[in-house]
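Page header: ASSEMBLY MODEL / two components / 646 residues total.
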Amino acid sequence: MGWAIALHGGAGDIPVTLPPERRVPREATLRRCLDIGVAALQSKRSPLDVVELVVRELENCPHFNAGRGSVLTSDGTVEMEACIMDGKTKKCGAVSGLTTVVNPISLSRLVMEKTPHIYLAFDGAEAFAREQGVETLDRSHFITAENIERLKQAKEANRVQLDYTLPTPKEQAKETIVAEGDSQIGTVGCVAVDNNGNLATATSTGGLVNKMVGRIGDTPIIGAGTYANSLCAVSATGKGEAIMRATVARDVAALMEYKGLSLKEATAYVIEECAPKGTAGLVAVSAKGEVTMQFNTTGMFRACATEDGYSEMGIWPSV
Amino acid sequence: MGGWAIAVHGGAGVDPNLPLERQEQAKVLLTRCLNIGISALRSSLPAIDVVELVVRELESDPLFNSGRGSALTEKGTVEMEASIMDGHGRRCGAVSGVTTVKSPVSLARLVMEKSPHSYLAFSGAEELRPPTGGVEMVDNEYFITEENVGMLQLAKEANTILFDYRIPTVGFDKCSAVVENPLQMNGLPISVYAPETVGCVVVDGEGRCAAATSTGGLMNKMSGRIGDSPLIGAGTYACEVCGVSCTGEGEAIIRGTLAREVAAVMEYKGLGLQEAVDYVVKERLDQGKAGLIAVSRNGEVAYGFNCIGMFRGCATQDGFMEVGIWE
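Prediction written out in full:
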C-alpha cells in the first residue's frame, strides 16, 4: 500500500474559455501544492499534517476562494470557514465566520486538539484564535480587488433579477454571471493517506459571493463537505446547500461501509445519483491508497498523486 | 402506507436522582406536546408543519433546554440553535447563535423557505427579517431562568475541579475522588449537565417525513460553540425514508453523523427502522452517550439511547402512545 494525495480548488461552471491569466496561476498553485504534499508524505509526515499544510498553502494563494482571496458577503466582508478530520480517531474540528485569521484550517485543527468542542463560530472562534495566538491580520488582507469586482457584478445581477420578474431578463442576468465565469467557485481541499492507511481530510472556503452575513455552507459540516474515517477521506466542493442536503462526504464512506462499494464506485454513485447535476465535485482517497477526483459540474480545479508515480492535474473532464 | 406517527424528545442523559416532581413535569409536558402533534396530524397538517409546531411548544416551556430555559454560555448568555428538515424534497434550514428570536425552530424554517441558504448563524441569523414578518423577538433575558443561573454556577465550579480544556471522557477516573457524582455527560457531572435538547419527528398520513431539533447547547459552553442540533446529518435529518432527531453528547453525534446514519443503513443496508436505530446507537457512537427518535415513511416509530434515560414520547395512528424517561 502506498501513499496517495488529492487536492481541489473548487468545482463549478468553469468556462472552457477561461482566460489564461485566470487559469495559469491556479494551475501553478495546484502543482506547487501537490509537490508540497508529496514531499511531506515522502518525509513521513502524518496525513493530518499533510492536509493542513497543503490547505494552508491554498489559503495563502489569492486565486482561490479561501483565506486570502475569499469571496465577499453582501456587506463586502469576508467570513471564512474550514474543517479538518482525522480518519483513524474520527477526531475533527471546524470553524465558521472568521474575519481575521490568516489560516482558518489551522484554527480548526486547534479547535479539534485544544477544546472539548468540535465547532466554534464567529466571535467565539475569533476570541479563541486570539487566545491561541494564531496569526491574524487586518480584514483588508483577505479582500482582493478581483473579489470586490465579483461582488459588484453579483449585486448588479441580483438587482436585475429583483427588478424584472419576467423570465427573459433573468436569463440574461444569469448569462452575465456565467460570462464572468468562475465567481462562485474556488473552495479548497485536500485528502491524504499514508503507507499505513492513516487518512485525513481538510476543506477551507470563503463561501459564496454575495452570501448573506452569517451564512454557513457545507465546508465546515462533518459529513457534508468534509469527512474521514478508517476507510476513506473525502473533501467536497460545489453548491453548499445541495452538498449539505445530500451529506455528500459521509455518503461516500457509508456506501463503502454498508454496500461494500469501492472508492471509485462509491464516489461515482454519490456524484451521479445523490447530488443534483451541476452541484458537486469531490476528491477522495481510500485506506488502500486509491485516489479519485469526480464532479458533475463543468469543471473542477484538481490534482492528485500516488506513491507508484501516478499523477494527474486538470480543470475540465479528462478525455 | 402505515398511517401517521410522531415522536418527541426532551434530551438524553438524565440524572438518576432527578426529583420525582421534575420527572412528572417532564412527562406532562411531553404528553401535552404529543397531543398537540396528534391533533395537528388528525387535521391533516403536513409533517413539516407538525414538527415545527411541536418544537415551538417545547421551546416556549422553560422545562427543557431550548428556547426559554436554554442552558447558559460561560458568559451567562443564551445562544440557541435549531434545525428543521423536510424529507419530502430534502429541504432544510438551520440556525446557530440565536439570542433574541423567541422560536429558533421557526427561524430555521424561515431560513429554509425565505433565504437562498440552508444555514445562518449569529448576527446573520438574528437579522433575517423576511418582508412577510413573522419573527417574534424578545430580550435575551426572556430565555434565562433562575434555575439555569444556579446551574451555570455549579458547572463553573465543576470545571475548576477538572481542567479548562478537557478531552471528553478522559481523566474522570483520576478525578472521581473529587467529583461527587461519577456519572457524566459531555464532560460534566450529570447533575449539572443540561441534556434537555428537544426534538420532534413526524410522518404524516401521506408518508412524508420531517424532523426538527432545538437546543440551548451545553451549560457553560464557550461562546460560539456549535453542537450537533443545527447540523444536518448529525442532530437532524429527514429524507423520503425516515425522519430522525438526536440528542446527547454533541461531539459524539457529529463524529457519528448519527441522524443521517439511521437513513443510510436503511437505504444502503436495507435495515428496518428499529434495527437501524439499534445499529446506529450500538455501532456509531463509539464512546459517546446519546439517544435518538425516528419515524419511517411506513408509519413506524422507534427510539434508542445508550445512556441513563431519555425524555421521550411517541404515538402512532393505530392508537399506540407512550411517554417515558427510563429504559
